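Re: that chain you flagged

S.,

Sorry for the slow reply, it's been a week of failed gels. I finally had a moment to sit down with the sequence you sent. For the record, here it is as I used it:
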Amino acid sequence: MGIVYRASSAAVQIDTGLTLTLSAPAGTLASDILIAVIEFEGGTGETWTPPAGWTLIGRKDNSTTIGVVAYWAHGNVASFAFAVSPTITAVGWVNGYFGVNQVTPIDATAVGNTGSGTVATCASITTVTNGAVCPCIAGFNSASTFSGATFTQRQNGIVTGSSDPDSMDSGDFTQTVHGATATKTTTASSTAAWAALTAALRPQAEVPHVLQAIYRGVELQ
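Prediction finished late last night. Pasting the structure tokens below so you have them in one place:
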């Protein structure tokens, strides 16, 4: 079956806050893998502390201007409250997937990229397993909307009400055969400094047909 996108939670923002509390996407099951994605002010000057059950996938900072960070957890994780210090503005949400390997959900080390302009580039990542699904996130130091993405867009959001607003786009693409992927891009409506991150999810190993038959109690011919 391969990896299938489940859903995304609503975008949540903090405006000069210390805790960003996200939520599980609708319909999440314990066997799902959840990807929390966050864009934040301050870049290298900020420290994120995830709640229990969340593991860092990767982080990329554009100097001390902005950064993006991603974490993964199983669908039955208890808390979605991510702490940050010092006080900043940030926006984030959770993208959920099923059919991901439960033991080794991350297929390859995440790759980051930074720049300035309207087009953010999610760098190439080299996957290990056929059928890996590669999440992409791109954060901008501007209140932007997004268009023209070369990955499948899943969720985006904006920090509003701030003197220094931010925004982020997220999505994914499938790498059918393992190896180096193409770069992926998204276009923001405003020019700004940006940071992007590319990750890779490993599909659940297929159970051989013989074992499937045994599990179902079917007599082999």
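What I noticed first: The chain has one domain: 4-215.

Talk soon,
D.
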